[in-house]
Specification:
By secondary structure, this protein is α+β, with helices and mostly antiparallel strands. The protein has a single domain, classed as Arc Repressor Mutant, subunit A, CATH 1.10.10. About 40% of the residues lie in helices and about 10% in strands. It has 4 helices and 3 strands. Strands 1-3-2 form a 3-stranded antiparallel sheet. Strand 2 and strand 3 form a beta hairpin. Helix 3 packs across helix 4.
């Protein structure tokens, strides 16, 4: 993430890491969604209740966040289960 994107993302995050709001502008929302996607491990499958729990740490409107994550292909959903299919990957964490 470049410095400009980091500053943009920081405008939507409170000091505790929660979201102050969900951006209306798609380009800014994509930065936020990429940040949220980092809380899901690659290769893991999550039931909807766990996805909700993880997203609730960021914002109370978990349904909107889930929908955006699926629509923008950060997460894939089938039969009530979700897995990460997009977003930035920290290559150092894969070693």
């Amino acid at each position: 993430m470049d410095e400009q994107d980091a500053r943009t993302l920081a405008r939507f995050l409170a000091t505790d890491g929660s979201l102050t709001s969900i951006p209306a502008k798609r380009s800014k929302r994509l930065l936020v969604l990429d940040h949220l996607a980092q809380s899901f491990e690659l290769g893991e499958v999550y039931p909807e209740t766990e996805v909700n729990g993880r997203l609730r740490r960021f914002h109370p409107d978990v349904a909107a966040l889930r929908r955006y994550l699926v629509e923008e292909q950060f997460l894939t959903r089938r039969d009530g289960f979700y897995w990460r299919t997009g977003g930035t990957v920290d290559l150092d964490s894969l070693e």
